[in-house]
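Escalated from tier 1: guanosine-5'-diphosphate holo job.
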Amino acid sequence: GPLSVTEFASKVGKSTADILKFFFNQGLMMNQNMMLSEEQMGELALEFGFDFKKEESLTKENIFEQLQVADKPEDLVDRAPIVTIMGHVDHGKTTLLDSMRNADVAASEAGGITQAIGAYQVVHSSGKKITFIDTPGHEAFTEMRSRGANATDIVILIVAADDGVMPQTEEAIDHAKMAEVPIIVFVNKCDKPGADPEKVKVELMNYGLVAEEYGGDIPFILGSAKEKQGLEELQETILFISEIKDYRANPNKFASGVVLEAHLDKSRGPVASILVQSGTLEMRDMVVAGGAFGAIKNMENENHKKVLKAEPSRPVVIFGLNSVPNAGDKFIVMNDEKMARQIAEAQIDKKRAAEQQSKQAFTLDQIKNHIDQGELKNINVIIKADTQGSVEALKGSLAKIDIAGVKLNVIRGSVGAISNSDITLAMASSAIVYGFNVRPDASVRRKAEEDGVDIRLHNIIYKVIEELEDAAKGMLDPII
Ligand code: GDP
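Tier 2 regenerated the structure:
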């Protein structure tokens, strides 16, 4: 039968506060003794990634019994590692993705007609599979993560050997580190005259990425995406990490996962590329993806081939949703159309509520409230400054600040103007952006406003510190 908030929380191994907070964020005041409706359960399943057992079909009546909270070890089977490639523009990400795909037999058998679905799988000569995600950018990667959709096991950092570490390489490193996933460095364009892979290794040491021969544990692979050199070694390294990390999932339940991209096709209606993360997706399954829902009418792989099933780590294109979901939306299967519709509609309301909230989410003048409520342990800070000297000086000063037991955590400190990427990172990590002798341009300022990110501009270090201390005491003057 139905469960109360407290009973549900203990069943799924969450705290009562987690569940109440979820509803609170939708503007719904619940208490721990209130009974959850089936629809609310479904929403929680989508939010926290619970799945449903597949022994019998899921109905409104049995949703509580069918909830699968934790997989038993014996239910788990190996799944393909999910890999994202990141790096500076023109360092060869697209070429690497293409080369790896074209080297794959299954793909070439398909006649070379491929569709851009945001991800594909290759089969290594050992028979093992690897899933590559083509994230449109670092920001999309982190935005997805900030929404709880962890669609990457391993990051490949691509760095051109003739160019070395560039601004977006730095960004990629920040994003990969935030995601706390293993990093493999692919030093690309080693075929070019003037390529200096050793220099890249030394440069990356400054970012904490230390090659094995220098005593670190980061695999560096020297190669050429264009000449298809180093690809085999890259795949072997991915599979090696995959073996150690032992990525597993339970295929024997209703599928759940994440939307990679989606659009409206003139003749076929809403089309969504999705990644199955657990369970198995099948034709005719009723899917709820963000604010969209519908029964799967057709399913295709990256080679335009019709598929009937999609196991964990498999990217597929699905047809049949009633509207276009957003990239990064989570999906679950919910084989009850009425409930699916209600959950989808609740997602739309929730998104609206969240947008309202984020307008004021990370501002400095809220810090005192957070401290008073004992919620805040770290204040994340991004520093952008005119010189490396200023960056280091600010970092040093901030490290010494202790506001009522709250520590400052510099998640990015670099030279240069405040960029859109800084804002995205700030949003994803609830950080405040400090500009020291640098300013954001109008478009960055606009994005910060939209995302509710606080930008503070200064040119004297002690002003920064004074301001943070004032903020902690709740005595802040607005400056921007
Ligand atoms: P992306 O912006 O990171 O996706 O970079 P692209 O894959 O579009 O590559 C940018 C340019 O570098 C293109 O002209 C590629 O042909 C070239 N390129 C990529 N990889 C290599 C390589 O290994 N060697 C050489 N010589 N050129 C490469």
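The first strand starts at residue 51 and ends at 52.
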